[in-house]
Each structure stands twice: as C-alpha cells, then as structure tokens.
Amino acid sequence: MMAGDMRDNGDAGGHGAGGHGFGDLSALSAEEMGHRLDGFGVNLLVRRVARAVDFLRDVLGFAVLRQSDDYAVLAWRGRLFQLHADATYAAHPLPAHLPEAGLRGAGAELRLYQTDPDQAEQRARDGGYEVLQAAADKPHGLRECFLLDPDGYCWVPSARKRPGIAGA
C-alpha cells in the first residue's frame, strides 16, 4: 500500500495524527521516501525545520515521523506533510520567488477540518504563536480560528458549530 493510500487508524476524536499507519520512515533513503509518496502532497519551505515542527506538533497535534535540520515528515489523520529547509532547494526555481522577510503563505489557508479551534487557539497562545483571528462561529456552519505559524503559513482548525452556543 502506498503512503498516500493509508488512513488514520486512531484518534477518531478529532485531534492529532493518531495511529498514522506509515511505519518507521526514519531510516529510508531520499529515494525510498520519494517512492512511498502517492496522491496529493503538501510540502512547505520553511526557514527553520525545528521551529515549524514545534508549531505543527504542539499546536495542531501532528505526529513527527522523521526530522532532521533540513527536512521533516509529519502525519495528520493519515496524510503526510513534508517540510524542507530553504537550503535544500538551492537548485530549485521556487526560492527566488519567496520573500526574504515576512509571510510566506499569504493568500493560502491550510485547513484542518474537525479539529477543535478553541483548543488549538489556546495551545498557540500558550506557545507564543500568532493568533490571527480568535475562534468564532462562522455563517458557513463552522467554528474556526486562524493561526500563523513561524513562517507565516495560515492554519485554520475548524469544527462544526456546537448546538446551544451563541451564533450556532
């Protein structure tokens, strides 16, 4: 089974990666890792991998499957996410278009459905991360908040509005 085909087999309660089902990825070569990928993937270029991993793990409950100074693989509900340090893209055309300072992810939202926005917001505040917009009930039936990670990517944990809460 390819990595993209695997589904989360744990933590049906809505937070974190649970049983990610990917096995031990830490010893795979770059080529072997590449061959495990399938379907749709997310890869974010970040200034410092460790700082990005801390945010994703501590605030949004991602499972860290592999991490080095330049690269990380994380899982969230059966989906792989990759992080690459800028230096790993030295021969790639994308870094020439990245801002030297400021937000990298302006205009994109990375949405995590059925993830408690109030808990994520509190963890972000506790960790000193930027809360762009506090958790609030929205007209489209979701309660969501907007959090900026250290590289300026906007993460939006959201869940169905709870009955009996104002605005629900």
- How many structural domains are formed by the residues? 1
Percent of residues in beta strands: 25-35%
| Number of helices, where a helix is a run of at least 4 consecutive DSSP H or I residues | 3
Can you tell me the overall shape?
globular
Give the beta-strand count. Answer: 8
Using only C-alpha atoms, the radius of gyration works out to 17 Å
Distance between the termini: 41 Å
Entry summary:
This protein is of the alpha/beta class.
Can you put this structure into words, describing what you see?
It is globular and about 50 Å long. The longest helix has 10 residues, at 49-58. The chain has a single domain (3-160), classed as Roll (2,3-Dihydroxybiphenyl 1,2-Dioxygenase, domain 1), CATH 3.10.180.10. The protein has helices at residues 30-36, 49-58, 117-126; strands at residues 42-46, 63-67, 71-76, 79-85, 109-113, 130-137, 142-148, 154-160. 16% of the residues lie in helices and 30% in strands. The chain has 168 residues and is an alpha/beta fold. Residues 1-18 have low confidence and may be disordered.
Question: Which descriptors would you attach to this protein?
Answer:
168 residues, 2,3-Dihydroxybiphenyl 1,2-Dioxygenase, domain 1, 8 strands
Summarize the topology:
Layout lengths: L29 H7 L5 E5 L2 H10 L4 E5 L3 E6 L2 E7 L23 E5 L3 H10 L3 E8 L4 E7 L5 E7 L8
Parallel strand pairs: 1-4, 5-8
Antiparallel strand pairs: 2-3, 3-4, 6-7, 7-8
